[in-house]
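quick q for whoever's on today - can somebody do inverse folding on this one?? i tried earlier but teh output was garbage lol. tokens:
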């Protein structure tokens, strides 16, 4: 009887790092455009529910801790660097898991994009402003979008994993 080898190939994490790099480039490119063409507070009406604005966020999501004395810059930078290192380690171990690795790549590209902003400027550049009837969702950027898509995909991956386990 032939012996079957069930060793899983490790797969390459390079495509996932490439995706993270593409997201990082898109994020930084759009932020360079905003910094180059808009002054702080400038806004351009695009549609009845969307504007392009220039906003600086010294805090985390939804401006959490933005009004603190400046310590949060390095705190959130450290968290971003630690998360990036952990994600690279996870990608190395799980590169064959496509949805999981896609999610991690999105989060990695976004996290590094916002870390670069914090290190260079002391704040994150946000510019996408969605609104309706006087209500504005907090402005965000490409990195934030990538992180959100990654988080949604992580949840979906876990739901699918649990469903397969049944």
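ok took a stab at it. sequence:
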């Amino acid at each position: 009887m032939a012996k079957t080898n069930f060793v899983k190939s490790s797969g390459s994490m390079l495509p996932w790092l490439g995706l993270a790099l593409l997201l990082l480039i898109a994020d930084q490119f759009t932020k360079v455009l905003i910094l180059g063409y808009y002054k702080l507070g400038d806004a351009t009406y695009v549609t009845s529910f969307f504007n392009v604005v220039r906003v600086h966020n010294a805090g985390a999501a939804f401006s959490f801790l933005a009004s603190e004395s400046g310590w949060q810059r390095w705190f959130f930078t450290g968290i971003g660097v630690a998360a990036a290192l952990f994600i690279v380690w996870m990608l190395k171990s799980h590169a064959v898991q496509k949805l999981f690795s896609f999610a991690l790549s999105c989060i990695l590209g976004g996290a590094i994009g916002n870390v670069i902003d914090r290190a260079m400027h002391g704040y994150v550049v946000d510019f996408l402003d969605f609104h309706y009837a006087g209500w504005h969702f907090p402005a965000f950027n490409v990195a934030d979008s990538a992180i959100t898509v990654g988080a949604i995909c992580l949840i979906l991956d876990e739901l699918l994993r649990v469903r397969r386990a049944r």
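fwiw Residues 3-9 have pLDDT under 50 and may be disordered. also The longest helix spans residues 14-37. so keep that in mind when u check it
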